[in-house]
Amino acid sequence: MKVIYLRGQKVDIEQPVCSAIGFFDGLHVGHMALVDEVIKVSNEKGYAKALMTFDHYPLYVLGKITEEKYLTSMNDRIAILEDKGIDYLFVIEFTKEVAAISPETFIERYLINCHIQHVVCGYDFRFGACNSGDPTTLKKHTDLGVSVIDEVIYKDEKISSSRIRNHLERGQIEDLNELLGRQYTIKGEVIKGRRIGHLIGFPTANIDYHSYFLPVNGVYGVKVYIQGQCYIGMCNIGYNPTFTALDKPSLEVNIFDFNQDIYGEKIVVEFYLFIRKEKSFHNKDELIQQLNLDQAYIQKYFQTYHV
């Protein structure tokens, strides 16, 4: 898959393109309905398959939120789309100036210039100054074919990135994994921590999670991938309140049956179940007792369900 960053330039693509357009954070089941439509239309018409997204969350660029927290990094999205056989990922370099252009200018600058002849979007897609463009605007452009995808429902509610974030904030891992169509995943480099886990018999890999949206503070059953090998583990997210509390949440994983130095390694953490919220213990012995119970619970879960 070729990744092309857009600043309004014409893109040299000979084959006509069918592209979905949206922010696509999470690439959840609802988003994948658009991806599937792109594949269907492209196969029928002989078009190249593409997605168009933005390099930054529009609300962040416009100052309506103060921090960017992603369900999927750009690299995550690239990997997922490559697996689906997408040919191009167009990434609009989003600025306040881009947000202020008219819908008609947006169409010419980003769709026509990329040789896009068929657009796939959600029923609630908006674009252009003051969100004045919508699917009807696209349909009025006679050079474009347009497919509009209805909302995708799970348990009587629309699947959305905000709904997934709400599940993360509540530790509802199994429900959010249903919405994603895969396990919630955080990828990052192993960095040095305070080594408290080593002192109490539960050594942990401390992960630099960058701008990922963290689940609620607590303990989780996870799978960990290191150099292509899969391990079972126990993940803790939080401030380590039993000891001197941290300034920001940490993400640490105790990897079962593993004893290697992996500082600097990039690892993958997949979340399967939420055990309990973070709490402060009276002493380290009480903490160790609870960690033993947590570990036994996680091991039994994976043995029972063979996931």
List the helices and strands and how they pair.
Layout: E1 2-6, E2 17-21, H1 29-45, E3 48-54, H2 58-61, H3 74-83, E4 88-92, H4 96-99, H5 103-111, E5 116-122, H6 135-140, E6 145-149, E7 153-154, E8 157-158, H7 161-170, H8 173-180, E9 184-191, H9 196-199, E10 205-208, E11 218-226, E12 229-238, E13 250-255, E14 266-277, H10 284-305
Parallel strand pairs: 1-4, 2-3, 2-5, 3-4, 5-6
Antiparallel strand pairs: 7-8, 9-10, 9-14, 10-13, 11-12, 11-14, 12-13
Compose a concise summary of this entry.
The protein is an alpha/beta fold and 307 residues long. The protein is 31% helix and 28% strand. The strands form three sheets. It has a six-stranded parallel beta sheet with strand order 1-4-3-2-5-6. It has a six-stranded antiparallel barrel with strand order 9-10-13-12-11-14.
Overview of this protein structure:
This protein is of the alpha/beta class. It folds into 2 domains: 2-156, HUPs (Rossmann fold); 183-305, Elongation Factor Tu (Ef-tu), domain 3 (Beta Barrel), CATH 2.40.30. It is built from 10 helices and 14 strands. The strands form 3 sheets. Strands 1-4-3-2-5-6 form a 6-stranded parallel β-sheet. A 6-stranded antiparallel beta barrel has the order 9-10-13-12-11-14. The protein has a two-stranded antiparallel sheet with strand order 7-8. The longest helix is centred in the C-terminal third of the chain and has 22 residues, at 284-305. The chain is elongated.
